[in-house]
Write a structure and sequence with these properties.
disordered N terminus; 15 helices; mainly alpha; 301 residues
């Protein structure tokens, strides 16, 4: 994904500095997001959590038409159409505000998942993830020795979609910080419940972010977990370009809040999936992405 590639230069330049470092919440959150995507791709085959599979009921002709239409849509077109549909159903929203990189990634993942869901309607089955990749994730999260960790990371790095999306460095990052990775797994706070797989992804992503930022993994886990998402928080957005936002328009621009906000919009019309999808596709035909979306910049406090 493009969002991965644009980060490496800044990340490795900052990592090269020696000595104690104060917490850089921007860099810490960036690495958390990168590991969150890498672990999700390993476990589920997608970089972001998958939404619920929609119900069947569309005709075969409608399904084929919608698949082809979605394939032609850019992430910006998908996101803007989602916003327009939310406004149509009564939610307040700013259709002019350009998306940030996380929202673009969300739109690309949602569009691709929508295509897969429609394709699976035709096949009458739905596979959430291949058993092989889930076993690698399970072995990674259960590893308690360097040998076990090295074996899991080796298999992880060889997955075709991991290579294709440019995420092959992440197994290496885990091995390079193996002592810290194994130590945080031994910590009593590590989620061990059979129902805690999503929590394990978040815990390990936050801990690895700390390891790559020169912080103790447990310190990083606590700082990211307790990060403020309201006014005064590190990602609180107060301006759109050079225009100050009104108090009720300000928001947290962190990757978690961006995904949550986008998910909330999509859930609003998913309750009536078939009618909502038809309305979405009809609205998509008239969606025109503003040219300024390509050059927008956001400012925080």
């Amino acid at each position: 994904m493009a969002i991965v590639g644009i980060l490496w230069h800044e990340l490795f330049c900052l990592m090269g500095k020696r000595g104690p470092k104060p917490a850089n919440m921007g860099l810490l959150s960036t690495w958390e997001f990168e590991f969150f995507k890498a672990f999700h791709l390993l476990r589920d085959g997608t970089q972001l959590p998958m939404k619920q599979d929609p119900p069947t009921g569309l005709t075969k002709a409608e399904t084929r038409t919608f698949i082809e239409q979605l394939r032609r849509m850019s992430p910006n077109e998908y996101l803007l159409t989602t916003r327009r549909l939310a406004v149509y159903f009564g939610e307040r929203g700013d259709l002019r505000r350009p998306p940030n990189p996380v929202e673009r990634l969300w739109a690309e993942e949602q569009r691709d998942q929508e295509i897969r869901s429609l394709q699976n309607m035709q096949r009458s089955y739905f596979i959430l993830a291949a058993a092989a990749r889930r076993k690698i994730w399970a072995d990674l999260s259960r590893a308690d020795t360097y040998a076990a960790l090295r074996k899991a990371c080796g298999r992880w790095a060889r997955l075709p979609d991991v290579r294709r999306t440019g995420l092959t460095p992440f197994p290496g990052h885990v091995l390079e910080n193996a002592a810290q990775f194994l130590a945080m797994k031994r910590n009593k706070r590590f989620p061990r419940s059979s129902y805690g797989d999503d929590s394990r992804i978040e815990y390990l992503a936050r801990g690895m972010a700390g390891a790559l930022c020169g912080l103790s993994p447990m310190t990083a886990i606590e700082r990211l977990r307790n990060m403020k998402h309201a006014a005064g928080g590190p990602f609180w957005i107060t301006n759109y370009g050079n225009r100050p936002l009104a108090e009720n328009e300000r928001y947290c621009g962190c990757w978690r809040c961006s995904i949550r906000k986008s998910d909330e919009r999509s859930k609003m019309w998913q309750k009536w999936y078939e009618n909502g999808l038809k309305a979405f596709m009809e609205m998509a035909r008239t969606t025109k992405v503003p040219t300024e979306w390509k050059t927008a910049h956001f400012k925080s406090q």
